[in-house]
Design a protein that fits this description.
Elements (H helix, E strand, L loop, with lengths): L3 E6 L3 H13 L4 E7 L3 H10 L4 E3 L2 H4 L5 E4 L6 H10 L3 E5 L6 H14 L3 E4 L6 H13 L2 E9 L13 H4 L3 H17 L4 E9 L25 E8 L4 E7 L8 E8 L3 E3 L4 E6 L2 E6 L6 H16 L9 H20 L3 E2 L2
Parallel strand pairs: 1-2, 1-4, 2-3, 4-5, 5-6, 7-10
Antiparallel strand pairs: 7-11, 8-9, 8-15, 9-10, 11-12, 12-13, 13-14
Helix pairs in contact: 1-9, 4-5, 5-10, 6-8, 8-10
């Protein structure tokens, strides 16, 4: 059986903790043949640790020797690297978010379509057990009315990497963390499409000196990205989504929440519960599910590999990812302009 030759572009934590283990667990289908990082020493360390045969000082050189690449760089470089790879006839799995903005994301999508190559964005929550069960349950929920999403962390601003750098990342808690839950929610309520966004973006707690922060220290004067976001999203069918995400909330504990109230029933994802009026009572059903991010990473990798080999279709399409980026753009624009933003 033909193995997909995979290259890694970016050798940071997400490559080492998610993508490399996922590909190595699927070694009958994929082989990591090379790694590139702007920090060549880091690339060499990762290559040695995981027995990756080649280290490339230039990512363009890698493209001559691989069938696909996985992009794990800061967000600023997603579009340029992905477009170059796709134009070289190489499939692309790119970490989320798709790009810094929808304009860049559209160029990535256009390149994939023009070259007939697979482009997938790493929204791995779609492959988490409870989310997949929720998707399977949506026909019984019926048309969505109100969806609620919370991606809240008590005091966990990432104190490593470039997460607090707007020039390199484009945003903070929304682009890093909230986008996962936003993507999952939009997937669950599809084909309902977001039509208008009213939002407010905050940058207060993370700017305070003498921080209490569970995820390392950072320069409170240097941070220039959002630490808290709230949004009200109206859909084309008049359903709505109440959205909130944060790196640094003054709350009791972290919260990961998606719930949907529909015409025929409702559900909550974490943990999975289903609610439905039956026999003149409100019935509540529980299911044992897991929130295993490593397993979700493996399922995501397998879906990408199978799609590249012509054996499957993507569970997370680049068009869906572009829609998430359009909503993110609208959230930031609404806060900056102080008014609702229409999504075209």
């Amino acid at each position: 059986m033909k193995k997909l030759k995979m290259g890694l572009i970016g050798a940071g934590g997400i490559a080492e903790n998610r993508h490399i283990p996922a590909y190595q667990s699927l070694s009958e289908q994929v082989e990591i043949v090379g790694v590139h990082d702007v920090n060549l020493v880091r690339a060499e360390e990762v290559a040695e640790k995981y027995a990756i045969p080649h280290v490339y000082a230039n990512d363009l050189d890698m493209l001559k020797h691989v069938d696909a690449v996985t992009i794990c760089t800061p967000n600023k470089f997603h579009e340029s690297i992905a477009v170059a790879a796709l134009n070289h006839g190489v499939h692309v799995l790119c970490e989320k978010p798709m790009a810094m903005n929808a304009e860049e994301g559209k160029r990535m999508l256009d390149a994939a379509e023009a070259n007939h190559k697979i482009l997938m964005i790493g929204y791995h929550y779609r492959f988490i057990d409870a989310v997949m069960l929720a998707k399977a349950s949506m026909p019984e929920v019926g048309a969505p009315i109100v969806t609620r999403v919370q991606a809240l962390r008590q005091r966990k601003v990432p104190g490593w990497g470039v997460f607090i750098n707007k020039e390199l990342q484009g945003g903070g808690s929304l682009i890093d963390w909230g986008c996962h839950l936003l993507d999952a929610a939009l997937w669950l309520v599809a084909p309902s499409k977001p039509a208008e966004v009213q939002a407010q973006v905050y940058q207060r707690l993370s700017k305070q000196p003498n921080q209490i922060n569970d995820w390392g220290s950072y320069d409170h004067e240097a941070i220039d990205v959002d630490d808290h976001v709230s949004a009200y999203i109206r859909f084309d069918d008049q359903s709505t989504l109440l959205f909130e995400c944060s790196w640094a909330a003054n709350i009791k504990e972290d919260q990961t929440h998606i719930s949907i109230s529909g015409e025929n029933g409702g559900l909550s994802v974490f943990p999975f519960e289903f609610y439905q009026p039956k026999y003149h009572r409100m019935m509540e059903t529980h299911a044992k599910t897991t929130e295993d991010h490593q397993q979700a990473g493996v399922l995501q990798a397998k879906n990408f590999i199978d799609a590249c080999l012509g054996k499957d279709t993507l569970k997370s399409s680049p068009k869906d990812a572009l829609l998430v980026t359009k909503v993110i753009d609208a959230i930031y624009a609404s806060s900056e302009q102080g008014k609702p933003i229409v999504i075209n």
